[in-house]
Amino acid sequence: MSEVYDEILNQSSIQTVLNYYGLNVVKNKCICPFHADTHPSMSIHLNKGIVKCFACGAGGNAISFIQKYENEINHNPIDTREAMQKAIDIQGLNIVIPQNNNVPLTEEQQKQKRLNTILKDAITFCENNLKTNSIDSERTLDYLKSRNLSNNVINEFHIGFNPTYN
Asked: What is the pTM of this model?
């Protein structure tokens, strides 16, 4: 499995991965998606195929960046194997991951995957609450509109609400 991992990294372009996630690279820097960055603090090392944020410490190669972004930003818990496949798909690489080499997750990775699943379920629950035809959802939508939040922003940032029951 590590041979395929290395092969993917050797053929990867970290800039292609960053562009896929909508990060605009200018002079080998971009806004870091992992903290509230206002000035580009993530450095891109094209020759090494890695990124590093000097403000929050986030970074990695094409595969680890994909995994971190999917887990933390998209709330889509994926393991290393899935991140490898996503790197192949994003870049159109001609590499096949053997199906019989399952890499077991560490205890920490299993815990993180469970927590990400819980978070994703909570986000989905709150988003769905906003889409119901209830008085609470209408009031919440009216409030969000009064704050000048468009439907695109509401969807993009996964805004929802958790009703309170008295």
From this structure: 0.64
